[in-house]
Every structure is written in C-alpha cells, then in structure tokens.
C-alpha cells in the first residue's frame, strides 16, 4: 500500500491541508492537547520546521511529519545538532498502515544527510521504539514524564540535560 504514496517536502500550498490533517489525526486522542495544528502552523510559519514532510496519495494528504532543532542544556554545556520529531500525523482512515513509520524513516534520513547528531521524540515508547527511539536517562522536557522522552543518536551517546523545544510548541491558537 505504501507503493502508491508519494513522500515529499511540505510546501506553502499544503498549509491548509496539513492543518486539517493534523486536526483530524489528533481529534479525541487522550494524549492530545488540541494545540497540535497550532504547533504545526507556528513551526511552518517561523521556518523552524527544518524538515517538514507530507505523504500524499490520489485522495490527497494522508500524513505529515515535522522535525525542528532543539537545544539541550546539560552538565557539559548546550547540546547542539539535535532535532525533535513532532507533530507526526496520519489521517485517521489511513492509520496502522505504516505511513507514520515511513514518514519517520524519511525524516531521519534527511536529518542524517544534514549532519544532525540525533533526534528526540516525546510519545509512546511502544510506537516510536519501532523506528529506533529509546527512552534514555538524563533527558528531560519540562512538564513531560521522562518515560515518554526518547532519543535516537546517529553516532555516540545521547546528551543529558533539559531539552528546550522551539517556542512554537507553546502555540495555543
């Protein structure tokens, strides 16, 4: 089924469709804050989405993923070269078909070619573990239980410290 999907960079022409997709993907989920479409809009408008991908088939957009730079403040100073995945969205009628995992793999490949040190994600370890993310001690996102903070280093060990997300992650509308 993934053969019929085109994975490509998001463009300005996709903005409304991405907002609709993100809203639908997170609607009614117990872990959703309702701000996910606003976060994506803010990441896109600010240029903070260093990698923004969409998945498209004949019916339109079926998925999207954004990756933005983070700063990690730890005992050895600020960690740079790290990115965070989010939001990741798949249209409800297309979930559980591998689209989200494929978007993650495409995005991670892009980050590697840019020389990134690694990628972080906040979410379900059971889901994100399938693409290589692992919960590691010593990484913290204020207000998020550490059991959901995961890292995928591209070389070496992940840093430790407090993760500072882009201000877009505070968008409320």
Automatic annotation (TrEMBL):
Residue ranges annotated for the N-acetyltransferase domain, each copy included: 5-153
Gene3D superfamilies named in the record: 3.40.630.30
Annotated SUPFAM superfamilies: Acyl-CoA N-acyltransferases (Nat)
GO MF, one annotated term: acyltransferase activity, transferring groups other than amino-acyl groups
InterPro entries: Acyl_CoA_acyltransferase, GNAT_dom
Origin: domain of life: Bacteria
UniProt protein name: N-acetyltransferase domain-containing protein
Originating organism: Rhodoplanes roseus
């Amino acid at each position: 089924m993934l053969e019929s999907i085109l994975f490509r960079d998001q463009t300005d022409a996709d903005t409304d469709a991405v907002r609709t997709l993100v809203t639908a993907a997170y609607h009614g989920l117990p872990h959703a804050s309702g701000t996910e479409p606003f976060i994506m809009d803010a990441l896109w408008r600010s240029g903070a989405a260093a990698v923004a991908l969409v998945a498209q088939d004949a019916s339109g957009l079926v998925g999207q993923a954004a990756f933005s730079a983070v700063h990690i403040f730890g005992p050895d100073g600020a960690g740079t070269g790290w990115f965070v995945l989010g939001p990741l969205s798949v249209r409800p009628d297309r979930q559980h078909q591998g689209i989200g995992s494929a978007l993650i793999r495409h995005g991670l490949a892009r980050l590697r070619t840019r020389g990134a040190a690694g990628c972080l994600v906040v979410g379900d370890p059971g889901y994100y573990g399938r693409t290589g993310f692992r919960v590691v001690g010593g990484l913290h996102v204020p207000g998020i239980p550490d059991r959901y903070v995961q890292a995928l280093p591209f070389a070496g060990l992940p840093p430790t410290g407090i993760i500072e997300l882009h201000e877009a992650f505070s968008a409320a509308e």
